From TrEMBL:
Its EC number is 5.1.3.1. This is Ribulose-phosphate 3-epimerase. The keyword Iron-sulfur does not apply. Keywords: Carbohydrate metabolism, Isomerase, Metal-binding. Pfam families: Ribul_P_3_epim. It is an enzyme of class 5 (isomerase). InterPro entries: Aldolase_TIM, Ribul_P_3_epim, Ribul_P_3_epim-like, RibuloseP-bd_barrel. Coiled coil: none annotated. The active site is at D36, D177. It comes from Halomonas cibimaris. Binds 1 divalent metal cation per subunit. Belongs to the ribulose-phosphate 3-epimerase family. It catalyses: D-ribulose 5-phosphate = D-xylulose 5-phosphate. Pathway: Carbohydrate degradation.
Length: 221
């Protein structure tokens, strides 16, 4: 498997044809499926839950499903997503009363675990849980909506995070989420990210009417 991974955010997919959309981006070369879960409480938007994750598995999706929980509290849904076929589960530390326990729940369920940092959330949450992490996700927008602009301060935070992960000696992925496009992905990679979420950049290609648009964008990313 190659080092860099592209993770299309299905938040920008056509939900009426979700299985087909996921099949198409995977066929075009995407590596993992980014699955945004919003609860109208932790973030001001409402999306999809474990039933939809299960439906994608039943549809035949075998690629890793990267569940990004923007919900509070997290523990009940962690269990539900483990049962629904999630591969990776990440949550925001502010949304769990017991971050260490929630991370352990994810790994005990056989999934990879990660913490998500909002633009203003300090990285200090990492200090005592590094051994329980498979992924760190830095938000490069405020969570809740697709199609927002990349916050440039994320680049310095990525460099700082990359240094911490390298110093830890653990094998931990560094994912970035929000406003990643063809024209900024190189600088995001240079700052240390290895896994790139892209929602509108990939799924907007659909509206161009070009049947190979996904292939073109994913190849360029
Ligand atoms: C935002 C979500 C993102 C979003 C990214 O809260 O976590 O995954 O879908 O969308 P784009 O790539 O359009 O910024
Ligand atoms: Zn996300």
């Amino acid at each position: 498997s190659r080092f860099f991974r592209i993770a299309p955010s299905i938040l920008s997919a056509d939900f009426a044809r979700l299985g087909e959309e996921v099949d198409n981006v995977l066929a075009a070369g995407a590596d993992i499926v980014h699955f945004d879960v919003m609860d109208n409480h932790y973030v001001p938007n409402l999306t999809i839950g474990p039933m939809v994750c299960k439906a994608l598995r039943d549809h035949g999706v075998t690629a890793p499903i990267d569940v990004h929980l923007m919900v509070k509290p997290v523990d009940q849904l962690i269990g539900d997503f483990i049962d629904a076929g999630a591969s990776i589960i990440t949550f925001h530390p502010e949304a769990s009363e017991h971050v260490d326990r929630s991370l352990q729940l994810i790994r005990d369920g056989g999934c990879q675990a990660g913490l998500v940092f909002n633009p203003a959330t300090p990285l200090s949450y990492l200090d005592y849980v590094m051994d329980k992490l498979d992924m760190v996700l830095l938000m490069s927008v405020n969570p809740g909506f697709g199609g927002q602009a990349f916050i440039p301060q994320t680049l310095a935070k990525l460099r700082e995070t990359r240094a911490k992960l390298d110093a830890s000696g653990y094998d931990i992925r560094l994912e970035v989420d929000g406003g990643v496009k063809v024209d900024n992905i190189a600088e995001v990679a240079a700052a240390g990210a290895d896994t790139f979420v892209a929602g509108s950049a990939i799924f907007k290609a659909r509206r161009t009417g070009d049947p190979h648009a996904y292939d073109t964008v994913i190849r360029e990313l």
